[in-house]
Every structure is written in C-alpha cells, then in structure tokens.
Amino acid sequence: MAKVWVQICASNPFAGRSDLLGPLEADGDRYHILRVGCLDRCTACARQPFALVNGILVTARSCEELAEHVRRMPPLGAPPRR
C-alpha cells in the first residue's frame, strides 16, 4: 500500500504535540512518519508548525490545521487528485 511520507523536524516546538501527530499516528496504515533532527527549514521551523509531506513543505497556523493539510495529501506515487 502506498503511504504519505511525513517528515517532522524534531527541533520544531510543535513537533511533539499530540494534536499534530496523534491523529496521523492513529492511521498508521496511511502514513509513514519520520522524526528528523533537522530538516534545514529554519525560517518555517521558528514560526509555525510544518512538515515535509512527500517532499513538499507544508505549513499551517496550528497543529490541527497542519494535520488536516497532511490528511488531504495523496500517497506517494498515487495519481494526483482532480
């Protein structure tokens, strides 16, 4: 099964919050979540919740909003949504 690849920067102040990772980790069949020491996105990291999702920088105003953006992403290798 194709998965959505989510990379979370461990340096981001929002990285460990359950309202970000909890909903995604609960659906482990759909997401592959990697916690990385640094994603070299310091400008985004200092200001807001963010993740690299299938290699694309995704930012949001809150952890809940970021989790929702991630949920909308297609699995890696899946055809784009129309």
Written overview of the protein:
The protein is of the alpha+beta class and 82 residues long. The chain has one domain. It is built from three helices and four strands. It has helices at 18-25, 42-47, 63-72; strands at 4-9, 31-36, 50-53, 56-59. A four-stranded mixed sheet has the order 2-1-3-4, covered by helices on one side. Strand 1, helix 1 and strand 2 (31-36) form a beta-alpha-beta unit. Helix 1 packs parallel to helix 3 (63-72). The model has no long low-confidence stretch (mean pLDDT 85).
Short structural description:
The protein is of the alpha+beta class and 82 residues long. It has helices at 18-25, 42-47, 63-72; strands spanning 4-9, 31-36, 50-53, 56-59.
Summarize the topology:
Elements: E1 4-9, H1 18-25, E2 31-36, H2 42-47, E3 50-53, E4 56-59, H3 63-72
Parallel strand pairs: 1-2
Antiparallel strand pairs: 1-3, 3-4
Attribute tags:
4-stranded mixed sheet; single chain; 24% strand; alpha+beta; globular; 82 residues
Name the helicity range.
25-40%
Cα end-to-end separation: 21 Å
- Note the quaternary state here: single chain
Per DSSP, what share of the residues sits in E-state strands of 2 or more residues?
15-25%
Rg, Cα atoms, Å: 12 Å
Work out the helix count. Answer: 3
What's the rounded overall pLDDT mean? 85
Strand order of the largest sheet: 2-1-3-4
Low-confidence stretches: none
**What is the total domain count?**
1
Structural class of the secondary structure composition?
A: alpha+beta
Please give the number of β-strands.
4
SSE pattern, N- to C-terminal: EHEHEEH
Instruction: Sketch the major β-sheet.
Output: 4 strands, mixed
Shape field? globular
